[in-house]
Amino acid sequence: MAQRALLRPIGLASPAFARTHRLARPFSTVIDAPVHPASQPAPPQKPSSSVFQDALQATGPRMNWTKEEISEVYNTSLIDLTYAASTVHRRFHNPAAIQMCTLMNIKTGGCSEDCSYCAQSSRYDTGLKASKMVNVESVLEAARIAKENGSSRFCMGAAWRDMRGRKTNLKNVKEMVKGVRALGMEACVTLGMIDAEQAKELKNAGLTAYNHNVDTSREHYPSVITTRTYDERLATISNVQNAGIHVCTGGILGLGEKPQDHVGLIHTVATLPAHPESFPVNALVPIKGTPLGESQAIKFDAVLRTIATARLVLPTTIIRLAAGRHTMREEKQMMCFMAGANAVFTGEKMLTTACNGWEEDKQMFERWGLRPMESHETVGGQQEITQQQGNDAVAAESQASSQSATATV
Ligand code: SF4
């Protein structure tokens, strides 16, 4: 007998029997010899939707997604969803390359906006001391340190509503951008709302990317922010795109939203004239004193589901595992990387919240065979995936799946 007799008749594993005989885990069967897969009954086949199959076989980005289609992808079983996301991720990106970005606050606090999650809003008593803009030299010194530690992108954030009447500040920011680019790094800024002219000036200074999150779905947005509209956010994104700067725009999970708001968030960015170069997924870090300061943490499966859906819907975009990563264990982070996340913030601090440090990340990368993405290695998924390459990849995958006995999605 190849299989030792710890296999029990079903009746013996009944809850009553388990209670009296301490069989707490009726499935803990011990088998001495491997079971040949051919001898096992085939698992029931669940037809995948055509939307899901289309997303899985994408050869490039598409901008005509409907909310219903994204919802169908989002609501696919998580095991199938993450597998599919991983498959698409490998078609468009090197799965070992993770972009390391360092984010520096160049002007802290005192912001007039009322974003319910933000420590830097002057409307909330969070204990944060507002400060003036830091000087160019100290920013470039921080960028140098970030580069030495493996970061290829340096992001600079200022707590401003917009750039109106900030000529001197803009001049200094442009100097910072030039200096960061001269170090061979990608430069990103987040300065609030900007107009077309300011976007052009930043482009001419060499800016790689501009971050301006839409935060959540259009429907949920008014319960989070009231001092500027969703459309004002989209107008800034449009100014950035029109100036030829890469757009970094994403959201925050855990703002009291519903799953359909994750779908709505992805739908907003997926239907922009061009997909953003980068889509940050933040998990709210509740800040005491803000209206969302006592919020429950978002569940990990919702974070993973959002990342995997974003990977399928935005195949060429860099997906950034942003705020809240420091609260995740390494295994959870790895699940996110496998499901398509390929950028992190790393360094001493991330704006006003804690951040995983370079050393910790380097060790994690080494354990899992990851490496820091090179500067401009994959900016905006613009790594020239041609239609033919995409088709070839799909053909190779379907040939491989027809030759193997492994499960397909
Ligand atoms: S605009 Fe930015 S800095 Fe100002 S409150 Fe909102 S998130 Fe904070």
UniProtKB/TrEMBL annotation:
Pfam families: BATS, Radical_SAM. GO terms for cellular component: mitochondrion. Residues 375-409 are annotated as: Disordered. Its EC number is 2.8.1.6. Residues 96-325 form the Radical SAM core domain. This is biotin synthase. SMART domains: BATS, Elp3. Residues 393-409 have a biased composition (Low complexity). Its cofactor is [2Fe-2S] cluster; [4Fe-4S] cluster. Residues 380-391 have a biased composition (Polar residues). Keywords: 2Fe-2S, 4Fe-4S, Biotin biosynthesis, Iron, Iron-sulfur, Metal-binding, Mitochondrion, S-adenosyl-L-methionine, Transferase. GO terms for biological process: biotin biosynthetic process. Pathway: Cofactor biosynthesis; biotin biosynthesis; biotin from 7,8-diaminononanoate: step 2/2. InterPro entries: Aldolase_TIM, BATS_dom, Biotin_synth/BioAB, Biotin_synthase, Elp3/MiaA/NifB-like_rSAM, rSAM, rSAM_sf. GO terms for molecular function: 2 iron, 2 sulfur cluster binding; 4 iron, 4 sulfur cluster binding; biotin synthase activity; metal ion binding. Belongs to the radical SAM superfamily. Biotin synthase family.
